[in-house]
Structure of Cobalamin biosynthesis protein CobD:
Amino acid sequence: MSLVLSTLAGVTLDALIGEPRGWHPLVAFGRLAERLEQRFNPGGAGWRSHGVSAWCLAVLPLTVLVALLAQVEAFGWAVEVLALYFALGLNSLGQHARPVAEALRLGDLALARERVGYMVSRNTAGLDASGVARAGTESVLENGSDAVFAALFWFIIGGAPAVVLYRLSNTLDAMWGYRTERFERFGWAAAKIDDGLNYLPARLVALTYALLGKTALALRCWRQQAPLWDSPNAGPVMAAGAGALGVSLGGSADYHGERHERPDLGEGPQPRARDIERALNLVNGGVLLWLAILIIWGLVSA
C-alpha cells in the first residue's frame, strides 16, 4: 500500500474508532516501562547510563519487530496502517477536550475541573473557569503536536518503524522525563531523545497553527515568546498556537504541589470554553492541511 493510502487509512481508523476500548498496546508498553524503571532505577538511584539501557530495552526490540513485520508481503500493509492508528491520538484529544468545554458552558465548574484533570498534570482543584479554559486550550495545542502531528510526521518519514519508535519514546518521556529527584538522572535520556524527535515536527506544527489562524500575531509570538519557555518544543507550539487563536496562555500553574511561574504566551483575552474548541479546530484543520499536501505530493510524484 502506498504511503498516501496507508496514511489516509490510519487517520480514518482513528477518526471512526478512536482508542480501542478493551486493550491498547501502549497500556501494555506502560507496564513494561514500569518494570524496567523498577529494575534500573530502584529507589531513584539510577544513573543516566541506566536510563539509556532501559530506554534501549523498551524501545528498540519492539521497533525492530515492527520493521520486520512490515516487510511481510501478506500483511505488511496492515502493520503499517495499524501502527499509525495506534500512534495517533486525534480522536482521543477531542473526546477529552470537548467535555471540558461543555462543562464550562453549562457552568459546572467542578465537573470542568475534573475533566481537565484528565488532560493535564497540573493541580486543577483550585482553578477558576478561566484557568480551566487555559489549561484545556494549552493541552489541546501541545498534545496536538505530540500525539497527532509528530506521529504523522514520523510515519511519513519512515513508516511503521519510525512512528512506533516515536510513540514509544514519547510515552517514556511522559513516564520518566520529569525533573524530580527520582527521575533527574534516570529520565535524562528519555527526555533528551523525545526533545530530539519532536524538534522538527514541533516547528512545522507552529507554522501550521500560524497559517491557519492569526498568522502575523502567531509568528510574532513564536519569535518573541517561545525562547522564554522551558521546553524547546512546547514553546514554539504553544506560543504560535496562542497567537493564532488570539488568546493569552501561560502564567502561573501548580505542578505536583509546586507553584510554577510560566512566561505569558499569546496576546488577547483570557481563554473561554469556546477557545478549547477553537484549538481543536486548529488541530483538525492542520491535519487536513497536512493530508492535502501529502495527497498533492503523491499525485505529483506518481
